Amino acid sequence: MPPKQWHPRHFDPVEEAVRKRTIWQSWAALPAPTRLKISLGICAVAVAGIFVSDRLEASVPASPNSTPYKTSSKS
């Protein structure tokens, strides 16, 4: 007897349910300590980015002729 071939329509019911989850449902399905660790990690990266940005801005000041946006010379 030949071995069974895998077919895209033959999904495990549990796997199919997981595939139909929204991002929010997948997030809510994670254990609370895992969600906390991920959230704290994201916050730590954000705070580090703010400090690095401030240090970089202090060490490399903008030139006096630079502008934060392009100006058009329409009259």
UniProtKB/TrEMBL annotation:
Superkingdom of source: Eukaryota
Name assigned to this protein: Uncharacterized protein
Origin species: Auriscalpium vulgare
Upper classification of the organism: Eukaryota, Fungi, Dikarya, Basidiomycota, Agaricomycotina
